[in-house]
């Protein structure tokens, strides 16, 4: 059963990454949403998604993609992974995956009822069945791992391409590659923090939690993650030449607070 779970998790990861498409600025959120949706599916469901997508003719995706993108459209990115197999091999894979799902269901729902586990002969027969089942599952797992490895190698090449400065500047002018932080003082997220500061400042300082609420109400798509950061405090840290930050410690009854102000601004009062 452990090998079967390994197979299911690997297949879900492959399917989640197999096709992601959308506006450049929302691509990370779309990918995360796809991963969450895939995680909720059963093995039978995910096998169905896999066979419907990974054997899909990529030319159809390209044609649809070209029809989708127009001169006035925002930057649109589509990333896909397909398996090109001869028709007879493709059908064989489909049939074997259907049999694998049936084997999984038999192991989970029918195994105990099929064998007399209180008798030696029944135990021996059950052990032989489990050995054969493991061999089948392991063979599928090894094949899937080869496909997954090939896909991840392609993903690595794509990441290297997207990390090139001219590509980043074209598609994501406000941000750097994941983990690199905010790109510059002119980025949109810096402007949003300034706008919040102009409206919410108290004695020259602005509460970060209030600024976050205001930004979310107006520009919810501009999140720390979009700029390679995990939290808003990290955004301020990356923009430390632009903003000064102070932290108020909390206690048992009052949570701590983070405040910021533009460097060079003078607190009033």
Which structural class do the helices and strands define? mainly alpha
N- and C-termini, Cα separation: 68 Å
Main sheet overview: 3 strands, antiparallel
Query: Into which percent range does the helicity of residues fall?
Result: 55-70%
Q: Write the H/E string, N to C.
A: HEHHHEHHHHEHHEE
Total number of beta strands: 5
- Overall 3D form: elongated
Number of helices: 10
Question: What's the arrangement of secondary structure elements?
Answer:
Blueprint (H helix, E strand, L loop, with lengths): L1 H17 E5 L3 H13 L3 H12 L3 H11 L7 E5 L6 H28 L5 H43 L2 H7 L16 H13 L5 E2 H11 L13 H7 L4 E6 L8 E6 L7
Antiparallel strand pairs: 1-2, 3-5, 4-5
Helix pairs in contact: 1-2, 1-3, 1-6, 3-5, 5-6, 8-9
Task: Please provide a written account of the structure.
With 269 residues, the protein is mainly α. It folds into 2 domains: 2-171, no CATH class; 188-262, Nucleotidyltransferase, domain 5. The protein has helices spanning 2-18, 27-39, 43-54, 58-68, 87-114, 120-162, 165-171, 188-200, 208-218, 232-238, and strands spanning 19-23, 76-80, 206-207, 243-248, 257-262. The strands form 2 sheets. It has a 3-stranded antiparallel β-sheet with strand order 3-5-4. Helix 1 runs antiparallel to helix 2, helix 1 (2-18) runs parallel beside helix 3 and helix 1 packs parallel to helix 6. The relative contact order is 0.09. Residues 176-183 have low confidence and may be disordered. InterPro entries: LOTUS-like (IPR041966), OST-HTH/LOTUS_dom (IPR025605). It comes from Raineyella fluvialis. Residues 187-248 form the HTH OST-type domain. Pfam families: OST-HTH. This is HTH OST-type domain-containing protein.
